[in-house]
Amino acid sequence: MSAEEMTMEAVKIEPDRGKTGALLSIQDLRVWFELRRFGFGRAGYVRAVDGVSFDLGRGEAIAIVGESGCGKSSLMKTILGLYRPTRGKVIFDNEDLTEKGTEGMRWYRSHVGYVQQDPYGALAPFMTVQRILEEPMIIGGVRSKGDRLKRTHDVMEIVKLFPIEDFLGKYPHMLSGGQQQRVVIARAMIMKPNFIVADEPVSMLDASVRVEILKLLRGLQETHNLSVIYITHDLSTVSYFSERIFVMYAGQLVEKASVSRLLNNPSHPYTLALLNGTSDPDAKNALTFKEVPPGEPPSLVNPPEGCRFHPRCSKMIKGTCDVKMPPEFLPEADHQVSCWLFQ
Amino acid sequence: MADTKLLNVKKLLLHFRTQHGPVQAVDGIDFDLDYNRAVVVLGESGCGKTTLAKAILRLLPRNVEKYSGQVFLSGKDIMQLTDEEFRLSVRWAGISMVPQAAMNALNPVLRVGDQIFEPASIHLGMKRGDALQLALKMFQHVGVPADFINRYPFELSGGMRQRVAIAMALITSPSLIILDEPTSALDVLTQANIFNVLKRIKKELGTSFILITHDIATSSELADDVAVMYAGQIVETGDSTRFFPQPLHPYSQKLMASVPRLRGEKKLEFIVGQPPSLINPPTGCRFAERCAQRFARCDQEPLVIQKDGRTVKCWLYN
Q: Which of A147, B15, B165, B221 lies in disulfide reach of B195, CB 3.0 to 4.6 Å?
């Protein structure tokens, strides 16, 4: 694709481009990291992502919720093409990414935006905002300086960094956390992607700024018909942002449902525990103790047999949960839960 | 009057010297705290919450411009003590602190048992064996398995390290513990666990807490009282049962409206603009610039107004 074509294409926002089906399809994805023994041989694998499948529709926002160490970052990095999957497929716009070489991945990356968790760490400290925003375009082949400048201005406008001229010459350390996160979002948007991965985009920000950034992202998602994967550990922000929630535990998705269904009718014991653990500001909270499942998430090197949550689960069925891995059951259409209780 | 309270802070002031002028990080703080109660200090980053904790504990950097006011601990003005007296009788013995990111505050080259008995051996004059016994008892209080005492910090998970840090703060049985963002880097379930631990300590040992956080939702797990800080000053204090449903100060109202909630629909709002620089804070009400309800009088410094046992620093309630 020539530079001209690329610019032309990017100017118009065409999320569908005539194609049908899901924008992104993850099929039985496994990402295992080898553990090497000192000297020779391998000691085993860290099964960071172990059998994850889902479809992401065009213009749909989903949230992946899980604790640290559950594999959500590995899943995200594999989707971004930073890790190669051990097994399984990542299909974007009907193209299998696992078969793509360097050129193919460059094509893919110009369609994907990435919003990092820590805005300060994600921005090169020695680059001005203008340079930060130009970089993806230089790599993506937007040759004309004029085009680049125009697009920089456009994107600064959509993330509402005003006055634009003042911000262009600034370095990241001169900006507040919220402004830095806006620059990160602007950079993710600069190639006019139709898909954005946001990894805990607001967890490092102050409460009052958090809402501002969430609203900005939600607005962008709606006006530009973006597909978004929102990765978080904070369930309370999810309902303001996405249509579906996937709950991840120890490398697997244990429950997938629409936001309202999951919040009103949580099924998996782990989802219940997460919901119970999340507080709303209420003085009554101080009067009671929270119910928390005992123990900690399992090691991903030697995950427990059967259901991975069974050692911590109060509803464990002996002889079933600790033996066989639960398949996905459907208590209702568009609600999948991997738990033997729903057999 | 002061002797009925555990802690009584009056006109506490801490300014730092910088190249651009004095930073008024803590600027005339008044609040008090009863025995066996927990107050949360809420506020955005940069509002001076952590500096307030450090000012109470006299943990000062070198560039102090001005440090004044009165802090009564059980009726005794601890600001009058010399540094050595303060170290011996207040730090650890009276007030201990769990610093921000406490899980990374442990010494990586010492076994956790060896570092948590240290305050006991220095302040209580205990022998190693007795102190380790006490450490084990504290581990029980915070829910750390006894055999972890010989482990190094890197062998523990984040939640366990946080518990160890709390055990260390408990070991000298202080009457007050200051917790600076105790759970901000932790997962939901670990957070819930830590707050269960803190509630149990409060109930069983009768300890008081100052909880410094910007996480309003989880702070309600422990709070009896709330103090809201903005730009180096406390703008509102009150008990949590009345504060959470109905904050008084316009800043507190906005802050509460920006908390995402899991249960019940609620429209989220955010506060336009940024907090003022603490080098040259505006005269008059410091929130006026961002306040939707400002009027002519807001150009003057607001009085602290008493309202049914709550205080609010805003002209609207005059």
A: B221
Peptide bond just before A163 cis, omega within 30 deg: yes
* DSSP-derived secondary structure letter, A340: G
Could you give phi then psi for residue B224, rounded to 5 degrees? Answer: -100, -40
Closest CA to B197 of B119, B118, B148, B139: B139
Nearest by CB to B263, from A208, A274, A280: name it. A280
Quick one: tokens of A36?
């090497």
At B41, the amino acid letter reads V
The Cα B8–Cα B18 span in angstroms is 29
pLDDT digits (tens, 9 = 90+) for B100-123: 877 678 999 999 998 988 898 888
SS3 A47: strand
Tracing tokens 């208590």 back to the chain, one arrives at A331
Instruction: Give, to the nearest 10 degrees, the angle between helix A145-158 and helix A177-189.
Output: 130
Q: What is the pTM of this model?
A: 0.87
Q: How far is A277 from chain B (nearest CA, A)?
A: 6
Paired tokens of A274: 């997460």
Mark which residues 173-212 of B lie under 8 Å from A by CB: 187-193, 195-196, 199-200
Closest Cα in chain A, distance from residue B87 (Å): 33
Q: How far apart are CA A21 and CA A148, in angstroms?
A: 32
Residue of A nearest to B222 (CA): A286
Rounded CA-CA distance A97/A73 in Å is: 18
- SS3 string, chain B, reads CHHHCCEEEEEEEEEECCCCCCEEEEEEEEEEECCCCEEEEECCCCCCHHHHHHHHCCCCCCCEEEEEEEEEECCEEHHHCCHHHHHHHCECCCEEEECCCHHHCCCCCCCHHHHHCHHHHHHCCCCHHHHHHHHHHHHHHHCCCHHHHHCCHHHCCHHHHHHHHHHHHHCCCCCEEEEECCCCCCCHHHHHHHHHHHHHHHHHHCCEEEEEECCHHHHCCCCCEEEEEECCEEEEEEEHHHHCCCCCCHHHHHHHHCCCCCCCCCCCCCCCCCCCCCCCCCCCCCCHHHCCCCCHHHHCCCCCEEECCEEECCHHHC
Kindly provide the ipTM of the predicted complex, given to two decimals: 0.85
Q: Dihedral (C-alpha) B131, B137, B140, B146: value to the nearest 10 degrees?
A: 50
Q: Are residues A281 and B259, on separate chains, in Cβ contact within 8 Å?
A: yes
Of B193, B214, B254, nearest to A292 by CB-CB distance is B193
Q: Which domains does chain B have, with CATH numbers?
A: 2-94+174-317 (3.40.50.300)
**Confidence band, pLDDT 50/70/90 cuts, at residue A149:** very high
Residues 6+ apart with CB under 8 A from B125: none
CB-nearest to A280 from B188, B217, B268 is: B217
Q: How far is CA A44 from the centre of its chain?
A: 27
